Amino acid sequence: MNLMTASNQWATRPSDERFLSLGGLRSAVQARKYDSIELNKTLSELQLHPLDGEIVLRDGFEDTRLTHWAFGQLARLAKAPAGYLRTLPPELAVIPLSWSMDKAGDYPGKVLLHEPPRADSPADRTARAITSQSYGRIWDIDVVQALEANIDQDVWKVPSASYASSDPLKATTLYASDRDIFVFLVNEDHEIEVPGSNGTDVLYRGFFAANSETGSKTFSLQTFLYRYICDNRIVWGAQEITELRIRHSSGGPGRFVREAEPFLRRYLEAGTGPVVEQIEAAQAKEVATSEEKTVEWLRGKGFTQGLALTAARKAKEEDGNPRSVWNLVQALTSQAQQTQHTDERVAIEAKAGKLMAAVS
After folding, report:
1. CB 3.0–4.6 Å: which of 251, 306, 332, 347 could bond 352 by disulfide?
2. Is the pTM of this model over 0.90?
3. Most confident of 190-199, 236-245, 346-355
4. Residue 179 is part of which domain span?
5. Are 245 and 263 contacting, i.e. CB atoms less than 8 angstroms apart?
6. Overall number of domains in the chain
7. To 10 degrees, the CA torsion angle through 303, 298, 264, 204?
8. How would you write 106-122 as a 3-class SS string?
């Protein structure tokens, strides 16, 4: 299967959101955290006013402007229609939004303020996020520092591209906006030779890491094997996809400390030998002697009847034994990527990953 995640990032990120090194990315998000402060406020305590064509926070916030993202969050918390409010002049929009916030009363909110040194105007002070107080913030800098502490940057690099030397900023896969970060690194120096039905298949290792300290996405760390990556950052022939996701709930920061770095270290330290052995074992292990019994076997592993039948049939399209654990995992993962709902996709991928783990 092919992964489009990095390609979508590559196609949409402006130049000021692109970084040439993890060190440069770290400096940007570290400064951002250093200049940020979290304040717990009820919605009724937040006072809005129109100013210079914008809606700003006042009364204790010294005319702090709302980012587009924070305005949408505030409207959602107040149960007001953000899309409609954005069509109104600020002088009008502030009236129904303030009424909705007063109606919400003591709803506990959390405001993430960004105020650089010597900020003296609303353009300098911003509310980057307004969430509930139960929001557990995983800071972008913590994610970047965890990556730096565990990877060898002489081995794990931005994927090669034909234009990398002439336009490195275009080629990079290290991104950060005022809303989120995304990191895509690969190990192109160590091939993994996997025997297949048509000879040796050469694979490489890569991973995505993504986070948002403003609440636009969960923390995720996705590892995979792949055949190659083209200039527009499509990951071709992705296999063995595993993913750790941590929601920004009250327990999220604690889970990040306990689970994220160990998950990454296990992947980085595994080397290529165990990966090859596990794939060979999965290719060799036949789970049943017919399609019907294959479906029954998958049902016993917790997959639905419909998904089990689809996987059993899709596995025939892969090289090798259609009833091997390897082919079935590829079929299940491919089907998961076509699932629109994230929770459902992650659940399928997790169950498929357990099939591979069971082989070893």
Report:
1. 332
2. no
3. 236-245
4. 1-34+138-193+203-269
5. no
6. 3
7. -120
8. CCEEEEEEECCCCCCCC
